[in-house]
Amino acid sequence: MKVAVYCRKSLFTGKGESVENQIEMCRQYIKFSMVDIEVADEDIFVYEDEGYSAKDLKRPQFQQMMKDLDTYKFCYIVCYRLDRLSRNVSDFSGLIEKLNAKGVNLICIKEHFDTSSPMGKAMMYITSVFAQLERETIAERVRDNMHLLARTGRWLGGTPPTGYQGTEESEVIVDGKVKTSHKLVFSDDIETVKLMYNHFLETYSVSAVSKYLIAKKVRSKTTGKYFSVLGIRDILQNPVYCIADENAYDYFAENGSDICRNKELWNGGHGVSTYNKRNYSRSGAPRNSLDEWIVSIGKHEGIISGKEWVAIQKYFHNNSKEKIVNHSETGLLSGLIYCTKCGEKMFSKKHKATSDNFSYICSSKLKGGNTLCDCPNLTGRQTDDFLVDYIKGKLDDFDTFIPALENLKREYEKEINIDKIDKIKKKIETVKNEIDTLVSRLTDTALSRASISAIDKKIAKQTEYLHALEKELTEQNQTSENIDFDMEALIESVKSFKNLFDDLSICDKRQIIRLLIQKIEWDGADLHIFMYS
User: Fold this and answer.
1) Is 438 in contact with 156 (CB distance < 8 Å)?
2) Tell me: the pLDDT tens digits for 110-163?
3) Sign of CA dihedral 103, 109, 112, 113
4) CATH node for 3-140
5) Rg for the chain, CA atoms, rounded
6) pTM exceeding the 0.90 threshold for the entire prediction
7) Per-residue pLDDT tens for 400-457?
8) What are phi and psi of 170, to 5 degrees?
9) Which residue has the higher pLDDT, 365 or 156?
10) SS3 (DSSP) at 1
11) Which phi and psi (to 5°) does residue 281 adopt?
12) CATH code for the structural domain at 185-322
């Protein structure tokens, strides 16, 4: 008889029962309390999710356990406590129905529940209702705390928006308690942000703003680099720069945002403050829809009128011309050619949206025009055809490529690290849960000023760590995607390159080219090809 043991813990902390302790207690229960059945040690299958909450069932080891139900034919699933499985009544009900259909009984050793008996099953449903109530109560307290923070206009810390720096601290009275209030103040970059808004209102083009700033040699005073198109767009959409006036109020009200201050207070004296703007439970922390935002009046100064800021947001919403386009979908050699004048990679760019004609242009020139790099473009089709003919000529002596291909295979296999990706995902989930816990702690009105300040700093530190982890995960995923192909099949394809190449997909053609070509350099007059040897 086979038994599954499931254990879960939301955070890597010293509080509560650790996953290891849960596993041991479940094993002891199986050995000493389930006396009517015999279970060998090798028939106990342990599944553990550490760093995952019970808000849903999207946990890797839990999902694996459910897949293994049919494979191993478990008779029981044993867990330490009911809320280790789920805090959602709907999820729990569906889980029990699925287990019943497969003849699997569930035992929770802490509450002494056993679904093999009618009373145990009924008590589990009742307990799951209270578990969901507890989760929803916590969520409500967090949202109430956001409202409280919004009414005071506090900034929660973290990396300040471009154009602002640090905080000015002052004391405020909240529910009779003295608490520390944070306030954004202008930095030197605020003049650059004003320049962005003013030029965009003249041109209504993010790329035009980027080229204008580069032509003026305007860089970020924080990083010393030119502002990217995506960075400029993000600044133009950030409500922190908007003046809290009547037009801003009407915009957020029309879009269903939760506004904390009465309309008469939106008199243009301060900037807009927003909470719950991003969804940190998803990779990349995308923006929530406006109807999920909590909006109020901040303590900081805004720089652009509500009327102008709203006009910009409506433009982005309605106008498809400002959508970010991936030009690298066209050419075979995008990202493989290097411009020797500026050292940047060259990417393909269509001449017109409806045209098949394209050119290779260096990323510096794409970003800032001839101001950054005046290297001539490469005709796309002609360059692709030239390289294909060049490779076909070299393949007459294919045996010379075998050692290089085998070496590439070894190098690529070293770069694939699925375990590393899983560890990063686990860390991300853990940090998100820690941030949620810290935010919920701010609801405690008995906290001292020092404690609140310490929690704010911890939230800021963990948020920065979260962003770093998400960036690392994106890079690892991109690496895996780039090298996730059948090397043996590609070697066979390379052997038949001359006959098969024209019939291959763009993706397969690119993979084969990257097997053979290390890089290509363009100096404005000649193309230099470097093959693996």
Assistant:
1) no
2) 877 777 766 666 666 665 555 555 555 555 565 566 556 656 667 766 688 999
3) negative
4) 3.40.50.1390
5) 29
6) no
7) 566 666 665 665 555 555 667 778 888 888 888 887 777 767 666 666 667 777 777 7
8) -145, 170
9) 365
10) coil
11) -85, -10
12) 3.90.1750
Report the alpha-carbon distance of residue 503 to residue 488 in Å, rounded. 19
CB burial of residue 345 (10 Å; 0-12, 13-18, 19+): middle
Please name which of 48, 42, 74 lies closest in space to residue 63, comparing C-alpha atoms: 48
In the chain, list all ranges with CATH 3.40.50.1390.
3-140
Tokens in use for 445? 């009105």
Q: By mean pLDDT, which of 3-17, 47-61, 260-274 is the weakest?
A: 3-17
- Shortest CA distance to 515 belongs to which of 416, 356, 402, 438? 402
Nearest 5°: the CA angle 366, 369, 373 is 90
**How many whole angstroms separate alpha carbon 134 and alpha carbon 129?**
9
Cβ count near 176 (within 10 Å): 6
Residues in the chain: 533
SS (H, E, C) 436-504: HHHHHHCCCCCCCHHHHHHHHHHHHHHHHHHHHHHHHHHHHHHHHHHHCCCHHHHHHHHHCHHHHHHHC
* Span(s) in the chain for CATH 3.90.1750: 185-322
Say if residues 74 and 86 touch (Cβ distance below 8 Å): no
H/E element, 385: helix 380-394
Give the C-alpha separation, 82 to 62, whole Å.
14
Token pair recorded at residue 463: 């948020």
Q: Which two tokens stand for residue 517?
A: 């070509």
Rounded CA separation 204/208 (Å): 8
